[in-house]
Every structure is written in structure tokens, then in C-alpha cells.
Input
Amino acid sequence: MQQKINYILSYFSALILIIAIVYPKGHSMKSFWIFLTASTLLNLAYTQYIIGFKWADLKNKWDFLIFPFLLNISAYFFIAYFPNLTAQIPMALFFGFSLNLVYNSLVAIKYKKMALPVTYRNLLMALSIIVVFLCSSLLINISLYWISNLLYLFLSHVALLYLIGHFLIKHMLVAPNKYSHLYNAIISLIISEIATTSAFWSVNYPKQGAGAGIPIGAIFVLIAYYVLWGLVYYMIEGRLTKKVTVEFALIGAFSFVAVVFTTNWLPL
Output
């Protein structure tokens, strides 16, 4: 029954998103904000239902609200970057699919007895990568077009990354150690510095143009997050080996080089 509710609500949220991106054509953007607010409140209310309404439940599981809130907000603005429905509708459906996975994961966490099953641990890691990428895209665009203060960009990324890291450490790791939150803070600071430095390259990937492309800084943040969190995850779990380190380093280096060489850089 719970899974059916998760499924229905997730794809109903995707439908609201599709209406939000279709309806404003020829209307004011006020309707977009109304749909965004309605969808966000609906998903936060359902997350609260999963958590429970007792103070003890909210105190222990307040971080359940992080993923639905960030995914909902960032998906709306990310999909709005794209100029045509051919791209927007499949991405809206993928948003519904991702939201369904988030809710299934939260339910699994709520009822876990010991360690979270490995399937859900991998799922949470994948979802965290998606959310970090979408939110970083939004934060960088806000910095580029509305708030030029780089301190905002740095601090907003620190908050974003630390909150997601807190959730993963608390619910995904089998055996967090006393340094886990220190590792989380260090990773958050390093990746936030990468995001801030990348802001000097106001270039969209794969091309520069209105309504198309993704801030290249968000892609660098995605690569750094995948590599650093992957290494720390294996280290905390006691499974970090030379082979694993080399694999992550190669993936990170290859991804960075590929993005640099396939980006349509602005002329000097």
C-alpha cells in the first residue's frame, strides 16, 4: 500500500511539473510559482506523514525532508532551462521516477532494523548525485544572473553539501566513525571552493546559448562530489584500497578532461 501511494504521489508531482512548464506559455510566471509552491508543500506534507507526527519522530528524522525539498525545487528550475517540451516532458517524468525512489528509500530507512540494504545504499548515493547536480546548477545560475556575491555561492554550496552529507552519514553508512562529520565538512568546503572558482567560467555545457546548456561549474561539482564522496564512503566502511582509489581518480580525471575538451569555450 505504501509503495502505491509513493508511486501515485510521485507521478502526480511530475504531472504538476508538466502543467507548470506548459501553462505559463502566454501567461505570467505567477502560475509557475503557484505550481512550484503547491508541489513543494504537497511533497513536504507527505514526507511529514512518512516521518510521523510525534515530536520524537520529527527530532530524529527531520532530515527526511532534505531530499524531497531539494529535488522538488531544483528540478523545476533545471527543467525550465530547456526551450522545448521534447526535452522537458521526459525530464519531468524522470523527476517523478526519482521522487518515487526517494520515498521508497525513506520508507526503507524508517523501518530498517540494522544496516540499510545495499540496494538502497546505492540508490541513495545515486539520488544524492542527482540532487547535488541539480541544486548546484540552480545556485550557480542564481549567482550568475541575480546575486553576484561569490560568498553567497560558496556558503550556499557548503550548506547544500553538508546537509546531504549529514543525511548519507546518518542513514546510509553501515558504521560511521567519530570523524565522519569532519570528513563531511572537509568535502563540503573543498567542493564549494570548486563551485566558487568555476563561477569565473560563465560558460554553459555543451554550448553557450539562451535556454540551453548547463553551467559548467555544476558539472565540475558533480565530478568532484562523485569522486570525493566515493573515496570517503569506502574509507569509512574500511574498504578503501589502492585499486578503488585509482579507479575513482581515473574516472574523475577522464570526466574532467572530457568536459573541458567538449565545451564550446567563449573566445578570449
In short: Residues 1-111 form one domain. The chain has two domains: 1-111, 113-267.
